[in-house]
What we know:
Elements: E1 3-7, E2 10-12, E3 18-25, E4 34-39, E5 46-51, E6 58-60, E7 68-73, E8 78-83, E9 92-98, E10 106-107, E11 111-115
Parallel strand pairs: 2-11
Antiparallel strand pairs: 1-3, 3-8, 4-5, 4-9, 5-6, 7-8, 9-10, 9-11
Amino acid sequence: QVQLLESGGGLVQPGGSLGLSCVASGFFFSSYAMSWSRQAPGKERELVAGISHGGGVINYGDSVKGRFTISRDNAKNMLYLQMNSVKPEDTAVYYCTRGRGAAADAWGQGTLVTVSS
């Protein structure tokens, strides 16, 4: 059974930093590309960042380029998202996702990130 469990969400001030983590289980983690996606109130879910199975290919959504960093530790079945210089428009539920874009096929329950002063 595929399980993706996010942690690290919370309230952060504009300009601050926050780190998200995801522990994966139930599948061979190192064989899959992974990504973070997010959904803000009233908006469609969007790709935040994706990383290939070995970590060598990374892509970011235009709105987070230069501010967010995705990484993974295949030995620990962990996916990470470091969020720096956050903005109020980064407020959303963030999902750990197996696959990227149209190839995504599993999501965690999500962790809420609120950027507000």
